[in-house]
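ok here's the first one, seq then struct tokens
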Amino acid sequence: MLSRWIPAAGRQRGLLARLGSRAYSYGRVFDAAARDGELRVFVVAGEVSGDSLASRLMASLRKLSPVPVRFAGVGGELMCKEGLQSLFPMEEIAIMGLWELLPHIYNVKRKIKDTLDAAILFRPHAVVTVDSKGFSFRLLQQLKCRYNQKVDSPLHVHYVAPSFWAWKGGESRLSKLHNFVDHMLCILPFEDEICRLHGLPATYVGHPLLDDAAGLNVAGTSLQHKNVDSELSPDMSMRQRSGEAFSLEHGLSSDATILTMLPGSRMQEVARMLPIFFRTVQHLSHTLNDLSLVIPVAPHRDVRTYVENVVRSVPFPVVLIPGGSLEKRYGAFNASKAALCTSGTAVMELMLAKLPCVVAYQAHFLTECFIHLRKKINFISLPNILLDSPIVPEILFRACTDKNLAAKLSEVIFNDEVRQLQVGSAERMLQVLYEPIKRQGNLFAEELGDSGLSSDVYSPSTIAALTVLYTDKHRRMVHRN
């Protein structure tokens, strides 16, 4: 989609050169990069969703930067394809949960020190940490101490705000983040205003789901128009063709009942949830015609090995596809009748694909107790949170048993009213995400004052890259508006 609005390389560099020649500063990172003749960005991501976000941001920075870009840091396969040489495998810091973290504390502390030393040596203009707040915030805190308020200290940007709104006392902690985070990139439309109210500069850059929708080219039109339903949601004929092509490619019968399983991306959650998912499906196997399963596998060597070993003992056909492939993942969704999903980003993808699902999650007993004591929201899935309604069924913690999941999945498969509730809510959710990003895109297009940009500047990764490059100017611009 970016190719639709980004000018040709020569014209783009000419535009940015004109911007850089203006009398006033056009952004801390932009000015420093222009001075040094290159843009140096240190990027850190600790999990699969962060790897995807960071890789898209890296691609957009390279296209928008007036000078060559160099990257360093920690990331996964997608970031490495964009030119990163990761300091160590990203999976070594992909740990979630309080109790689950304890055995790994020493190793994580060592990784923070190694990453800190590498960042200092790299002399970045910007440090961008993506999600993984436990690792990211400790790294940024220690970096801030090392630089000790030096004039040439890099801009600290954190991409994906922590879910402060979900926890008791969470919002009060935002003011402390300002000590080591210069700017927050938010993916939910209500987060940036709350951050700013607590003294933390922030920009809503859009949920990555909108980049997915554009990347799939589901309607072949620009995102700048107002009809979100036709732009972002695949029509029935396109979904049907995609599903049929997927079934044909993998030798699945046209009469087969296909279920997608999304057990997560971290090794610990896949090992916990996948056996429960298989037992769940076994409860329903006698009621489903020609049952077949599809599992998008996270790009993690240990996860791939584990899943491949487990599926050997499953009594029905299982198709494994690379979870990093947007086309294959949505092809599987379009071919499926329903999905079982571990809570996370994948729930939003299923909503975009209009595939009804059941969300499941288990954690260590102590982690569960902590969540019950501290949470202040009723839902765990983002579609339910955004629409403030139990659109997607959630079976969580001790209630997350194979029998309970089987009962709810059966309802999702066979009850048309339950299915339609999820399918019919997809457009509402997309509208909630899309409307604010149009305003952000218009602000940038107006400020940069170029017809090539103003035609379409509504991609989340592009908004994020522009914010990193022009954050000082953008901050003044937002306050003025």
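and now the second one, same deal
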Amino acid sequence: MTERQPLLLQSDASDYEGNRSLARPPVRSSPPDSTLVNVQSEDSIAVHAAGAGDDDEQSSQAGDNIAKYNPTQHRTVEHPTSNFDTMVHLLKGNIGTGILAMPDAFKNAGLYVGLFGTLIMGAICTHCMHMLVNCSHELCQRLQQPSLDFQNVAFCSFETGPLALRRYSHLAKRVISTFLFITQIGFCCVYFLFVALNIKNVMDHYFFLDVRIYLLLLLLPMVLLNLVRNLKYLTPVSLVASVLTVAGLAISFSYMLHDLPDVNTVKPVATWSTLPLYFGTAIYAFEGIGVVLPLENNMRTPEDFGGRTGVLNTGMVIVACLYTSVGFFGYLKYGEDVKGSITLNLPQGDILSQLVRISMAVAIFLSYTLQFYVPVNMVEPFVRSQFDTTRAKDLAGTILRTVLVTFTFILAAVIPNLGSIISLVGAVSSSALALIAPPIIEIITMYNVGYGRYNWILWKDIAIFLFGIAGFVFGTWASLAQILNPNVD
């Protein structure tokens, strides 16, 4: 029983409650989430005989077949994306409301701590993305599968790892799914509040209403927009949102760079008590780990995704530079008065600044649907399966979408502090997915392969894991403390 079986697919893909043989993850039943970066060496998979009936020749042949398996040659993508298309999607997947909150993050860290901390955070997050895609490719080779999504990468890493951990494979998959759901719902909540605050900021120039009134007015249009089930119809919406976002950022930069004060007017280093808030906001901003696997899987030339000058590194360098620039100049410009979104600091009576707020509000309003598409499609299949007729299934799906949108509305109304909720979402869910899960997956996946000279991979993963845990605990605590403190602006 201690010998490892050849890691080949079984013909039966059941839940294997009673049978502990390897279970085959779902193949192409949902949008693929697979990756291929930095292929492991051919001797990276150890295949041994299991039981008296398996001889050495069969095991050796099985190992050779697995080593030669290339997942990218077995993928059937109907409309593969080019390198440029993948770069655009990667940038859009990482650049959202988080970039507008970076000046607030710098306020909680200090000018120079925020400057170097954001660059370091970007490097760590990018490395964790590489870890995830490397593990995905290793597991695809072992299981001879063309693609794996984030959840199934976690599942297969446990299922093919140490014997003592294989019983937790389903739990690992459920944990990743739960945090993905929480992350996307958190993004939707932030989007909801962002739109309401920017509209309120414009309307306050004419008359004053509570932000919850604007949230309530947005509820019905948001519900109606999210009843659209086909992503094909959302493509023009996404294009309009991208154009408005670029225009809003460009104009915001023109305001930030105008008449910049001296660097001595802001704190170079903030206090320890606010540093966890910076961590939560910064890790929230690097929100794109969930899109990495599907982007690489759908590329026409997936071998261009990794590497030093590949799509992933190039895109994340651009993202990190944008975040650092917005945070640095935004905090330098507005100092301690900077708000949860830099658009809220623009001159209220200026027509151009009002257009920026409106355009960004419209862009984020339209982007809400794309963020909402992920969590609703994680839950809707289960809900629809509880009913028999097509009419009942459609009605249940409609009710589910309405309930989930209303739930994000309630959260936004209860926590109307944009900076705090961004930090909380980042500390709780983004840190779990971006910093905690990848090192755990890599440690377990490479158990049979080895951790390199002096076990440097193991020590590196442990360091990243501890960093993520510290950010998770202290960031969550600081964010909740700020939310519960009524004196916090």
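notes on #2: Residues 1-62 have pLDDT under 50 and may be disordered. The chain has 16 helices and no strands.
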